[in-house]
Amino acid sequence: SKTQVGFIGLGNMGKPMAKNLLKHGYPVIATDVFPESCKELQELGAQIVDNPAEVADQADRIVTMLPSSPNVIEVYTGPNGILKKVKKGSLLIDSSTIDPAVSKEMAVATEKMGAVFMDAPVSGGVGAASSGKLTFMVGGVEEEFTAAQELLTCMGANVVYCGAVGTGQAAKICNNMLLAIGMIGTSETMNLGIRLGLDPKLLAKILNMSSGRCWSSDTYNPVPGVMEGVPSGNGYQGGFGTQLMAKDLGLAQTTATNTKTPVPLGSLAHQIYRMMCARGYAGKDFSSVFQFLREDEEE
Ligand code: NAD
């Protein structure tokens, strides 16, 4: 029979991910600082405990899905953190999107306790988390990849080994920087076309059969009414929050600065998403940049 898997952070992504572990027959032991987010999982049979140390006391495989770097540091190294109780030989997988330098620090601290750390951030969003179709980008010791894969395939369709610890985060940060730039580009292009008198559906169709085509134009179009089943058709609710995108662009900037890499469009995208957060878009899906660009629309 399968042994208990720990899960810490039952938010928009973590909750459906933990549910998929249960579905695959893994007993789950979980915790979240926000008790309300534990209820549903408890009803589904998961054991809920007070803090990460108690998770580590019982489970020797633990997945964390937390908002950002400070939360991961707290959950690993805090007074009731995982590392207070971690068992030798445990496998700790962090799927949060955080600074790769923090992943490396957590790996060193985990290794000191005789356990293994891997970074395994995801792409795919809440829909893919629910349907078990996430893509995991995994960094860490290659010999441990098979053990991580066993759990991650319960929650994802693609599990890709990227290299040493931190490289999963690197892949994730690069993807999201391009996604942010592409979404802003698509939004300003669609807006210009509309002002030039083009029907937005027709313009999207033409872009999608031409060289301007991208994921933001053909799968996640930001213009209300162009596509069904995307946040732009639903007041930009759900999806991937502008605040989380701003965080990921900030991570891209930090890593670019550390490596002296020019990322002019990534930098501008970061500023645009930060301005949006300050103007009330923080909780809306990041495709709402289309609406933001139209705020000056003249009647
Ligand atoms: P979320 O804010 O919905 O969930 C995070 C959860 O962590 C919350 O329930 C919170 O209470 C809990 N938490 C925070 N600090 C804690 C602590 N010290 N101990 C225990 N629990 C704690 O965030 P999310 O949307 O689930 O995203 C999680 C991560 O995944 C982020 O890094 C995000 O960038 C990344 N991500 C999100 C999406 C998406 O579409 N939402 C897609 C890909 C990647």
From TrEMBL:
PROSITE patterns in UniProt: 3_HYDROXYISOBUT_DH
Active site: 172
One annotated GO biological process: L-valine catabolic process
SUPFAM superfamilies: 6-phosphogluconate dehydrogenase C-terminal domain-like, NAD(P)-binding Rossmann-fold domains
EC number(s) on file: 1.1.1.31
A Pfam family hit: NAD_binding_2
Record keywords, A-Z: Branched-chain amino acid catabolism, Mitochondrion, NAD, Oxidoreductase, Transit peptide
Source superkingdom: Eukaryota
GO terms under cellular component: mitochondrion
Domain 6-phosphogluconate dehydrogenase NADP-binding: 4-163
Example GO molecular function: 3-hydroxyisobutyrate dehydrogenase activity
Main location: mitochondrion
Catalysis performed (reactions): 3-hydroxy-2-methylpropanoate + NAD(+) = 2-methyl-3-oxopropanoate + NADH + H(+)
Pathway(s) of this molecule: Amino-acid degradation; L-valine degradation
Location of this chain's protein in the cell: Mitochondrion
The protein's enzyme class: oxidoreductase
Record carries keyword Transit peptide: yes
Domain 3-hydroxyisobutyrate dehydrogenase-like NAD-binding, residue spans: 166-292
Protein family membership: Belongs to the HIBADH-related family. 3-hydroxyisobutyrate dehydrogenase subfamily.
PANTHER family: 3-HYDROXYISOBUTYRATE DEHYDROGENASE, 3-HYDROXYISOBUTYRATE DEHYDROGENASE-RELATED
This protein's name: 3-hydroxyisobutyrate dehydrogenase
Gene: LOC120040291
